[in-house]
Amino acid sequence: MDAFDALRDSAQSVRAALGGVAERILTIDDRQRDLPKFEGKRHRLAVWLREADRFLATRDTKRPAIDIHCAHELSVTASCFQRWSTDPEWPELLKALADATSYPHALHTLLIASSFPRHQVRLNPTRENLRTSDLGVDFGTGGRLSIEVKAPLELQRPEPRLDNNHSNKLINRLMKKADDQLLAESGDGTSGLLAVGGFHLGREALSSLARSFKLYLQRKGARRPHLCGIMISNFGVLFDQAPLRTADGDVRVASATRTRGFNRQAVVENAHYSGAVPLALHFGGPDPDVEGAQELMFRE
Protein backbone atom coordinates (compact mmCIF):
# COMPACT_ATOMS: atom_id res chain seq x y z
CA MET A 1 0.00 0.00 0.00
CA ASP A 2 1.46 3.38 -0.98
CA ALA A 3 0.82 6.74 0.66
CA PHE A 4 -2.10 7.54 -1.64
CA ASP A 5 -3.83 4.23 -0.84
CA ALA A 6 -3.34 4.89 2.88
CA LEU A 7 -4.76 8.40 2.58
CA ARG A 8 -7.75 7.15 0.60
CA ASP A 9 -8.46 4.40 3.14
CA SER A 10 -8.18 6.82 6.08
CA ALA A 11 -10.62 9.27 4.52
CA GLN A 12 -13.07 6.48 3.70
CA SER A 13 -12.82 5.06 7.21
CA VAL A 14 -13.52 8.46 8.79
CA ARG A 15 -16.58 8.95 6.57
CA ALA A 16 -17.85 5.45 7.37
CA ALA A 17 -17.51 5.93 11.14
CA LEU A 18 -19.38 9.23 11.04
CA GLY A 19 -22.07 8.06 8.64
CA GLY A 20 -24.35 10.85 7.47
CA VAL A 21 -22.64 13.28 9.86
CA ALA A 22 -19.61 13.48 7.57
CA GLU A 23 -21.67 14.62 4.61
CA ARG A 24 -23.47 17.21 6.74
CA ILE A 25 -20.11 18.57 7.89
CA LEU A 26 -18.92 18.86 4.29
CA THR A 27 -22.18 20.37 3.05
CA ILE A 28 -22.08 23.09 5.70
CA ASP A 29 -18.41 23.74 4.96
CA ASP A 30 -19.11 24.11 1.22
CA ARG A 31 -21.75 26.70 2.03
CA GLN A 32 -19.70 28.70 4.53
CA ARG A 33 -16.01 28.45 3.70
CA ASP A 34 -15.89 31.43 1.30
CA LEU A 35 -17.81 33.75 3.62
CA PRO A 36 -15.55 36.32 5.34
CA LYS A 37 -17.04 35.77 8.80
CA PHE A 38 -16.08 32.08 8.72
CA GLU A 39 -12.45 32.69 7.81
CA GLY A 40 -10.31 30.64 10.17
CA LYS A 41 -13.39 28.95 11.64
CA ARG A 42 -13.89 26.04 9.26
CA HIS A 43 -14.55 22.57 10.65
CA ARG A 44 -11.15 20.94 11.11
CA LEU A 45 -12.27 17.60 9.69
CA ALA A 46 -13.91 19.20 6.66
CA VAL A 47 -10.61 20.90 5.84
CA TRP A 48 -8.68 17.62 5.92
CA LEU A 49 -11.27 15.62 3.99
CA ARG A 50 -11.35 18.24 1.23
CA GLU A 51 -7.55 18.36 1.24
CA ALA A 52 -7.44 14.56 0.94
CA ASP A 53 -9.69 14.73 -2.13
CA ARG A 54 -7.40 17.36 -3.65
CA PHE A 55 -4.22 15.36 -3.00
CA LEU A 56 -5.74 12.12 -4.26
CA ALA A 57 -6.64 13.87 -7.51
CA THR A 58 -2.91 14.50 -8.13
CA ARG A 59 -1.97 10.82 -7.90
CA ASP A 60 -1.66 10.18 -11.65
CA THR A 61 -0.39 13.62 -12.60
CA LYS A 62 3.16 14.80 -13.22
CA ARG A 63 3.25 16.38 -9.76
CA PRO A 64 1.61 14.05 -7.23
CA ALA A 65 1.47 15.55 -3.76
CA ILE A 66 0.46 14.60 -0.22
CA ASP A 67 0.64 16.82 2.86
CA ILE A 68 1.97 15.06 5.97
CA HIS A 69 -0.37 17.02 8.27
CA CYS A 70 -3.40 15.80 6.33
CA ALA A 71 -2.21 12.19 6.01
CA HIS A 72 -1.22 11.81 9.66
CA GLU A 73 -4.25 13.51 11.15
CA LEU A 74 -6.72 11.52 9.05
CA SER A 75 -4.89 8.25 9.74
CA VAL A 76 -4.94 8.65 13.53
CA THR A 77 -8.47 10.07 13.49
CA ALA A 78 -9.69 7.06 11.50
CA SER A 79 -8.15 4.61 13.98
CA CYS A 80 -9.59 6.55 16.89
CA PHE A 81 -13.10 6.65 15.40
CA GLN A 82 -12.97 2.93 14.61
CA ARG A 83 -12.09 2.13 18.20
CA TRP A 84 -14.87 4.19 19.80
CA SER A 85 -17.68 3.98 17.23
CA THR A 86 -19.11 0.91 18.99
CA ASP A 87 -19.17 2.59 22.41
CA PRO A 88 -22.68 3.19 23.80
CA GLU A 89 -21.86 6.92 24.04
CA TRP A 90 -20.86 7.24 20.37
CA PRO A 91 -24.24 8.71 19.27
CA GLU A 92 -23.79 11.51 21.82
CA LEU A 93 -20.19 12.07 20.75
CA LEU A 94 -21.32 12.42 17.13
CA LYS A 95 -23.16 15.58 18.12
CA ALA A 96 -19.92 17.12 19.38
CA LEU A 97 -17.86 15.85 16.44
CA ALA A 98 -20.34 17.41 14.00
CA ASP A 99 -19.85 20.90 15.43
CA ALA A 100 -16.86 22.92 14.23
CA THR A 101 -16.32 24.54 17.63
CA SER A 102 -16.59 21.42 19.80
CA TYR A 103 -14.82 19.03 17.37
CA PRO A 104 -11.23 19.64 18.62
CA HIS A 105 -12.30 19.00 22.22
CA ALA A 106 -14.20 15.84 21.26
CA LEU A 107 -11.29 14.54 19.19
CA HIS A 108 -8.76 15.09 21.99
CA THR A 109 -11.13 13.39 24.42
CA LEU A 110 -11.09 10.28 22.23
CA LEU A 111 -7.31 10.45 21.70
CA ILE A 112 -6.72 10.63 25.45
CA ALA A 113 -9.23 7.83 26.10
CA SER A 114 -7.30 5.69 23.60
CA SER A 115 -4.09 6.13 25.60
CA PHE A 116 -5.48 3.92 28.40
CA PRO A 117 -5.84 0.58 26.55
CA ARG A 118 -5.43 -1.61 29.65
CA HIS A 119 -8.05 0.06 31.79
CA GLN A 120 -11.78 0.56 31.74
CA VAL A 121 -12.54 3.98 30.28
CA ARG A 122 -15.89 5.73 30.54
CA LEU A 123 -16.77 8.43 28.01
CA ASN A 124 -18.87 11.23 29.48
CA PRO A 125 -20.13 13.40 26.61
CA THR A 126 -21.78 16.65 27.62
CA ARG A 127 -25.51 16.45 28.22
CA GLU A 128 -27.99 19.15 29.08
CA ASN A 129 -28.38 19.63 32.85
CA LEU A 130 -25.73 16.97 33.58
CA ARG A 131 -22.14 18.01 34.24
CA THR A 132 -19.41 15.42 34.65
CA SER A 133 -15.74 15.22 33.77
CA ASP A 134 -15.03 14.26 30.17
CA LEU A 135 -13.46 10.87 30.95
CA GLY A 136 -13.44 8.38 33.79
CA VAL A 137 -10.72 5.73 34.10
CA ASP A 138 -11.00 2.77 36.46
CA PHE A 139 -7.66 1.40 37.67
CA GLY A 140 -9.32 -1.39 39.64
CA THR A 141 -7.70 -1.61 43.07
CA GLY A 142 -5.55 1.36 42.04
CA GLY A 143 -8.41 3.83 42.26
CA ARG A 144 -10.36 5.95 39.80
CA LEU A 145 -9.34 8.94 37.72
CA SER A 146 -11.51 11.78 36.40
CA ILE A 147 -10.08 13.64 33.41
CA GLU A 148 -11.23 17.09 32.42
CA VAL A 149 -10.22 17.85 28.81
CA LYS A 150 -9.60 21.34 27.44
CA ALA A 151 -8.70 22.21 23.84
CA PRO A 152 -8.20 25.99 23.85
CA LEU A 153 -8.40 27.85 20.57
CA GLU A 154 -4.85 29.19 20.83
CA LEU A 155 -3.47 25.63 20.75
CA GLN A 156 -5.41 24.61 17.64
CA ARG A 157 -3.40 26.63 15.15
CA PRO A 158 -0.32 25.10 13.50
CA GLU A 159 2.87 25.84 15.45
CA PRO A 160 1.44 28.40 17.90
CA ARG A 161 3.91 30.80 19.40
CA LEU A 162 3.60 30.79 23.18
CA ASP A 163 5.75 32.76 25.57
CA ASN A 164 5.84 32.04 29.30
CA ASN A 165 3.45 34.86 30.13
CA HIS A 166 0.85 33.54 27.69
CA SER A 167 1.26 29.98 28.98
CA ASN A 168 0.89 31.14 32.59
CA LYS A 169 -2.35 32.95 31.80
CA LEU A 170 -3.60 29.92 29.87
CA ILE A 171 -3.13 27.40 32.68
CA ASN A 172 -4.72 29.72 35.23
CA ARG A 173 -7.75 30.13 32.99
CA LEU A 174 -8.10 26.42 32.20
CA MET A 175 -7.63 25.27 35.79
CA LYS A 176 -10.22 27.76 36.98
CA LYS A 177 -12.71 26.14 34.61
CA ALA A 178 -11.78 22.57 35.58
CA ASP A 179 -11.31 23.00 39.34
CA ASP A 180 -14.91 22.79 40.51
CA GLN A 181 -15.68 19.66 38.50
CA LEU A 182 -12.57 17.73 39.54
CA LEU A 183 -12.97 18.78 43.17
CA ALA A 184 -16.63 17.73 43.22
CA GLU A 185 -15.74 14.25 41.96
CA SER A 186 -12.90 13.85 44.45
CA GLY A 187 -15.36 13.41 47.34
CA ASP A 188 -15.44 9.63 46.90
CA GLY A 189 -11.66 9.36 46.57
CA THR A 190 -11.53 9.82 42.81
CA SER A 191 -8.33 11.47 41.60
CA GLY A 192 -8.29 14.26 39.03
CA LEU A 193 -6.26 15.11 35.95
CA LEU A 194 -6.48 18.20 33.75
CA ALA A 195 -5.67 17.42 30.11
CA VAL A 196 -4.78 20.25 27.74
CA GLY A 197 -4.98 19.38 24.04
CA GLY A 198 -3.28 21.06 21.11
CA PHE A 199 -2.42 20.44 17.46
CA HIS A 200 1.00 20.53 15.82
CA LEU A 201 2.69 22.05 18.87
CA GLY A 202 6.42 22.59 18.37
CA ARG A 203 9.07 22.04 21.03
CA GLU A 204 9.14 25.69 22.08
CA ALA A 205 5.40 25.73 22.70
CA LEU A 206 5.52 22.39 24.51
CA SER A 207 8.36 23.50 26.76
CA SER A 208 6.60 26.78 27.54
CA LEU A 209 3.44 24.92 28.52
CA ALA A 210 5.34 22.40 30.65
CA ARG A 211 7.19 25.15 32.51
CA SER A 212 3.95 26.98 33.25
CA PHE A 213 2.20 23.79 34.37
CA LYS A 214 5.10 22.91 36.67
CA LEU A 215 5.18 26.40 38.17
CA TYR A 216 1.43 26.35 38.71
CA LEU A 217 1.60 23.02 40.54
CA GLN A 218 4.53 24.18 42.66
CA ARG A 219 2.55 27.20 43.78
CA LYS A 220 -0.95 25.77 44.05
CA GLY A 221 -0.65 21.98 43.93
CA ALA A 222 -0.72 21.61 47.72
CA ARG A 223 -4.28 22.95 47.73
CA ARG A 224 -5.22 20.25 45.22
CA PRO A 225 -3.98 16.94 46.69
CA HIS A 226 -6.59 15.11 44.57
CA LEU A 227 -4.95 16.41 41.36
CA CYS A 228 -2.27 14.00 40.16
CA GLY A 229 -1.01 16.34 37.45
CA ILE A 230 -1.61 18.19 34.22
CA MET A 231 -1.44 16.40 30.89
CA ILE A 232 -0.30 17.83 27.56
CA SER A 233 -1.96 16.02 24.65
CA ASN A 234 -0.22 16.92 21.39
CA PHE A 235 -1.55 15.67 18.08
CA GLY A 236 -0.08 16.44 14.70
CA VAL A 237 3.32 16.66 13.06
CA LEU A 238 6.58 17.57 14.74
CA PHE A 239 9.36 19.14 12.71
CA ASP A 240 12.94 18.31 13.62
CA GLN A 241 15.99 19.94 12.12
CA ALA A 242 18.06 17.45 10.16
CA PRO A 243 21.67 18.70 10.21
CA LEU A 244 23.66 17.96 7.10
CA ARG A 245 27.00 16.19 7.52
CA THR A 246 30.06 16.21 5.31
CA ALA A 247 31.82 13.04 4.24
CA ASP A 248 34.22 13.32 7.18
CA GLY A 249 31.37 13.62 9.67
CA ASP A 250 31.51 17.36 10.38
CA VAL A 251 28.12 18.87 11.20
CA ARG A 252 27.11 21.78 9.02
CA VAL A 253 24.25 24.26 9.41
CA ALA A 254 20.89 22.51 9.17
CA SER A 255 19.23 23.19 5.84
CA ALA A 256 16.53 20.55 5.94
CA THR A 257 13.82 19.35 8.29
CA ARG A 258 12.69 15.91 9.29
CA THR A 259 8.99 15.40 10.00
CA ARG A 260 7.21 12.75 12.00
CA GLY A 261 3.67 12.06 13.06
CA PHE A 262 3.08 12.83 16.70
CA ASN A 263 0.30 11.68 19.00
CA ARG A 264 1.46 11.45 22.56
CA GLN A 265 0.38 12.41 26.03
CA ALA A 266 2.89 13.75 28.57
CA VAL A 267 2.18 14.58 32.22
CA VAL A 268 3.58 17.23 34.53
CA GLU A 269 3.27 15.68 38.01
CA ASN A 270 1.80 17.31 41.09
CA ALA A 271 4.35 16.63 43.85
CA HIS A 272 1.60 17.19 46.43
CA TYR A 273 -0.71 14.49 45.03
CA SER A 274 -1.95 12.09 47.72
CA GLY A 275 -4.44 9.93 45.82
CA ALA A 276 -4.41 6.24 44.95
CA VAL A 277 -3.97 6.25 41.16
CA PRO A 278 -0.53 4.73 40.37
CA LEU A 279 0.09 7.08 37.47
CA ALA A 280 3.85 7.25 38.07
CA LEU A 281 4.15 3.49 37.44
CA HIS A 282 3.22 4.14 33.81
CA PHE A 283 5.76 6.84 33.04
CA GLY A 284 8.40 5.94 30.50
CA GLY A 285 10.83 8.51 31.83
CA PRO A 286 11.35 12.14 30.81
CA ASP A 287 9.47 12.98 27.63
CA PRO A 288 12.03 13.53 24.85
CA ASP A 289 10.01 16.34 23.31
CA VAL A 290 8.46 18.03 26.36
CA GLU A 291 11.06 19.31 28.79
CA GLY A 292 9.86 18.96 32.37
CA ALA A 293 7.17 16.36 31.66
CA GLN A 294 6.98 12.57 31.96
CA GLU A 295 6.09 10.48 28.91
CA LEU A 296 2.90 8.50 29.51
CA MET A 297 3.38 4.83 28.60
CA PHE A 298 -0.04 3.24 29.01
CA ARG A 299 0.06 2.12 25.38
CA GLU A 300 0.44 -1.56 24.72
Summarize the structure.
The protein has 300 residues and is an alpha+beta fold. 40% of the residues lie in helices and 20% in strands. The chain starts with a helix and ends with a strand.
Structure description:
With 300 residues, the protein is of the alpha+beta class. The chain contains 8 helices and 8 strands, in the order ααααααβββαβαββββ. An 8-stranded mixed sheet has the order 1-2-3-4-5-6-8-7, with helices on both faces.
Topology:
Layout: H1 3-18, H2 20-32, H3 44-56, H4 68-84, H5 90-98, H6 103-113, E1 120-123, E2 135-138, E3 144-150, H7 164-185, E4 191-199, H8 203-220, E5 227-241, E6 257-269, E7 283-286, E8 294-296
Helix pairs in contact: 1-2, 1-3, 1-4, 2-3, 3-4, 5-6, 7-8
- Strand portion: 15-25%
Query: What radius of gyration results from the CA coordinates?
Result: 20 Å
Mean pLDDT, rounded to whole units? 84
Give the count of structural domains: 2
Distance between the termini: 25 Å
Shape type: globular
Major sheet attributes: 8 strands, mixed
Pick out the low-confidence regions: 241-257
- In DSSP terms, counting alpha (H) and pi (I) runs of 4 or more, how many helices? 8
Helix content percent band:
25-40%
Name the structural class.
alpha+beta
Strand order of the largest sheet: 1-2-3-4-5-6-8-7
- Number of E-type strands: 8
Helix-strand topology string = HHHHHHEEEHEHEEEE
List the keywords.
8 strands
